[in-house]
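4.2 Preliminary Data

To establish feasibility before requesting continued support, the project team ran the inverse folding procedure on a target of 394 residues. The structure was first converted into the token representation described in Section 3, and no sequence information of any kind was made available to the design step. The complete token record follows.
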């Protein structure tokens, strides 16, 4: 088969050629956009799920949907060691720049940019010698007395309110997209929730759409008790059999290529419905197949190569980030099983006191390799990671 025509795209956040099995989430976001357009009260939205299920792809799809409605949009990726002050400022600057050419009052845009500049300048960890003008291209003077108190909760609320006012002038909205939302520092999460809460009460046309690991709802609820009612939560999981088949069949048919049923059966067993794995196995199977229709025998030849690529790029790169103590902890988790495991069971497996393992566990959580599914239980953030670890030599 011609590798140039290979339609499959296993990549981080890369949109697959067929976005199958996500109609429900897309419809939900359509409702959010339409309700905001009609000045109806609406909650911001949060996507959660394991790595490789397509959260970032959906986030980008939602952004495209907002742009099609002429909304202003901005996106940022949270980091555990970085305040969201400057990333939010950059994202909102991008959103307002999208709206500025259509605004009838340029002075309103300049007024907001002055507030935005004041907000960004209050970042205590900004590199010395850096300027907001150089980073964002904001040449207007910084405003005084608005979003510049140094208290992120107060400043973020005022900034969001002013941004929403600019969007309301045009009868549209602003959507701020936050990837890896679970990595926002705790104090910043609290400030973000408070700002969203204020907006929801006044009906401002600005929403936050976040994506993160399965424990993100507990991170949000720990910061503000009302966060459970503040966001519309959507859990993104593996594809069912019909959607997984569609993700393979539709792109192939556009290239006049077919799959035999035994090939689809084998690919579903291998990928287990996880969108990233569907693309990874589909890509290699296409390359090794001699001709259409693709058969189960082609999948059997392709599977070891696909698994090898996943072992290096998807699993191995994450495993290499862990310290020796953290790797020992993960191997103990894998030895117990693939379901969420008790921290006490890991301690028993390693014949150690639970307290002595806390640094390794906390390090793995901060690196996004495991998460606490509920109190006392932990699980891998990457599907099939336990299986990968059990296949590796000690």
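Position-by-position output of the design step:
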């Amino acid at each position: 088969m011609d590798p140039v025509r290979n339609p499959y795209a296993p990549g981080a956040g890369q949109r697959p050629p067929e976005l199958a099995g996500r109609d429900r989430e897309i419809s939900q976001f359509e409702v959010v956009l339409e309700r905001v357009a009609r000045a109806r009260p609406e909650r911001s939205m949060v996507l959660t799920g394991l790595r490789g299920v397509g959260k970032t792809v959906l986030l980008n799809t939602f952004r495209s949907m907002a742009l099609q409605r002429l909304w202003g949009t901005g996106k940022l990726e949270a980091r555990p060691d970085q305040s969201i002050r400057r990333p939010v400022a950059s994202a909102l600057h991008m959103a307002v720049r999208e709206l500025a050419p259509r605004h009838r009052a340029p002075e309103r845009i300049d007024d907001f940019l002055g507030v935005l500049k004041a907000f960004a300048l209050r970042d205590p960890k900004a590199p010395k010698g850096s300027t907001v003008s150089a980073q964002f291209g904001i040449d207007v003077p910084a405003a005084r007395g608005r979003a510049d108190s140094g208290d992120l909760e107060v400043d973020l609320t005022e900034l969001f309110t002013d941004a929403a006012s600019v969007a309301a002038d045009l009868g549209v909205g602003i959507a701020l997209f936050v990837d890896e939302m679970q990595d926002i520092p705790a104090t910043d999460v609290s400030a973000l929730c408070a700002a969203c809460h204020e907006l929801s009460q006044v009906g401002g046309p600005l929403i936050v759409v976040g994506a993160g690991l399965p424990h993100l709802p507990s991170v949000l609820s720990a910061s503000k008790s009302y966060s459970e009612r503040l966001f519309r939560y959507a859990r993104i999981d593996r594809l069912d059999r019909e959607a997984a088949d569609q993700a393979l069949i539709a792109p192939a048919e556009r290239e006049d290529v077919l799959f035999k049923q035994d090939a689809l059966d084998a690919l579903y067993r291998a990928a287990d419905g996880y969108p990233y794995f569907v693309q990874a196995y589909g890509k290699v199977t296409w390359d090794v197949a001699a001709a259409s229709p693709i058969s189960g025998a082609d999948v059997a030849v392709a599977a070891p190569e696909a698994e090898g690529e996943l072992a290096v790029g998807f699993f191995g790169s994450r495993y290499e980030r862990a310290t020796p103590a953290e790797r020992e902890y993960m191997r103990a988790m894998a030895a117990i099983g693939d379901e969420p495991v008790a921290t006490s069971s890991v301690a028993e497996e390693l014949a150690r006191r639970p307290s002595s393992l806390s640094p390794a566990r906390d390090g793995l959580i901060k690196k996004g390799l495991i998460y606490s599914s509920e109190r006392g239980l932990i699980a891998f953030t990457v599907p099939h990671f336990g299986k990968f670890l059990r296949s590796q030599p000690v």
